[in-house]
Structure of Xylose transport system permease protein XylH:
Amino acid sequence: MSTPATTKTTAPAPPGSGAAGPPGVHMVRALVDGVRRNMRQYGMLLALGLIVLLFQVWTGGDLLLPRNVSNLVLQNSYILILAIGMMMVIISGHIDLSVGSLMALVGGVGAVLMVEHRISWPVAVILALLLGAVAGALQGFFIAYVGIPSFIVTLAGMLLFRGLTEIFLQGQTLGPFPEGLQKVANGFLPEAGPQTNYHNLTLLLGSGLIAYVVFQEVRDRRRQREFALEALPTSLFALKVTAMVAAVLVTTLLLASYKGAPVVLLILAVLLVGFGYVMRNAVIGRHVYAVGGNLPAAKLSGVKDKKVTFAVFLNMGMLAALAGLVFAARFNAASPKAGVNFELEAIAAAFIGGASMSGGVGTVAGAIIGGLVLGVLNNGMNLVGVGTDWQQVIKGLVLLAAVGFDVWNRRRAGV
């Protein structure tokens, strides 16, 4: 007697479980989930793209004219340099209110050395950078080893450096700077290669940057998979890399169709790559994140938090000195009023670029994105004739929205 065959029935998958449906639906669902998980990381990058698109339409195409793109880089170079250092300071859980005044002091001392004492500009630049390092180290000592809050120390530094600038310059503007230093702040890379419609050296550098971006992203994704860390879905990763390559390619072609890449852009690229590598891969970078993210845990893990804080402020001092020299050379004069409110611009760029008020969060690339958001806003609003009063209102609202988004995102994540 044969046993009747039994059939096994499977209950239908509940809606939204992902167990059923065409492959396209799963791909879209995975893409949406990836975007939601990485909203904080790529939100301002998307916002930057939308702002560029808005002003490109609003200005009738003037925003992305090759000459205006070059001016955009030159006009915001010193803020971007400051933003890199400020991002590291904020990641470590501190703040620096003195960078604008330190910029003015370094520019003034550099002007005295080069204009009045006729010291060659390369030597004067080295001395000015050392002055910035000493100023940053002094503030770092009081913050790390004496235990005075960074807000108080850097507020005192802001007043001190501004007063010393008035003393050095005797309340007057001093210039002009040597031609070599002016070329660093205002010059462009030289022509090279055969005669074409584009700047060949800029095209070569842009191609190298595209190759580096692709290599870095692929390597980071491979490492995330090796260590079983959360990685972007393949579709979102491909979209991210494509967008980054397109942005670099468009910028390269725009710059190459004018005078080529500004010299200061090359300096920014070196800083971005160098500090980006340090914060991602070096021990000191991980310690900066650890100190800002959870100081008690970092101490228990053996992190020398005082040395980390000291190093962060020393580095901020050197970057402020570099920004001060670039600013003074761009305007070909050192002024006691230079750098006013620049610390606020740098802080705003860091927070817009993804830094967290509680520390431990942020990237060097995010600082550049935040600085570009402010730069494009300033440039676009100037092109369409928005008054300076309304410009301040709009930038304030953008900063408030960026910090509010950070607070909302942390609450949503249960932090």
Q: What stands out?
A: The chain has a mean pLDDT of 88.
